[in-house]
Amino acid sequence: MIRYMRNLMNARNDEGASAVEYGLLVAAIAAVIVIIVFALGGVIKNVFTKTCSAVSSGASVSGQNCAG
Length: 68
Fold this sequence. Notes:
Layout: H1 2-10, H2 15-58
């Protein structure tokens, strides 16, 4: 009986802990991606706006603009 109790005390179930760790890892990666998008979003928008303006001024196709 004592041996059975020792086995119960020493038996560990790490599956739940590793699932939580993977979940935290995914959440941290998602948070980093969101921070990068917000930090660089304005810069990237300006680059695309400049590119769109350059293309529009160089080759106007039937009056369409960048938004349409």
